[in-house]
Amino acid sequence: MSRERLARWHAYVAAPDHGVLWDMLHPDAVFESPVVHTPQRGREIVFKYLASADQVLGGEGFRYVGEWFSDDGAVLEFESEVDGIKVNGVDMIRWDADGRIVHFKVMVRPLKAIQMVHAKMGEMLAKGA
Predict the structure, then answer these.
(1) Domains of the chain by range and CATH?
(2) Which of 2, 14, 107, 127 has the greatest number of beta carbons closer than 10 A?
(3) pLDDT, tens digit, 9 for 90 and up, residues 64-85
(4) What is the pTM of this model?
(5) How far apart are CA 79 and CA 61, in angstroms?
């Protein structure tokens, strides 16, 4: 059930542990970024994107403000503020039968927030987050 899997995701967001994140990802996981035009495939690259997002968007100002469920997935609306810019977006997560994340898509608004997230994520990914 998605709610049980989602509880694990919420626990991770509240206290990021990259070992836990790695274990949550299916080896063939796919990540779709709001700023990269092609899906990123494989646990290693998905891990890098999500670990970088922890550092860019996560922390005290990050919060989920809405949740919608299906049998194997969830859509989570989030809000954050980074460098004085309000970020609003959604995480769309799908799990396999074993509870591992197989697909993670992020959409962000407004344009100013997308531009800022793009720049900061690029910096984090270049560092090897």
Answers:
(1) 2-127 (3.10.450.50)
(2) 2
(3) 999 999 989 999 999 999 888 8
(4) 0.90
(5) 8
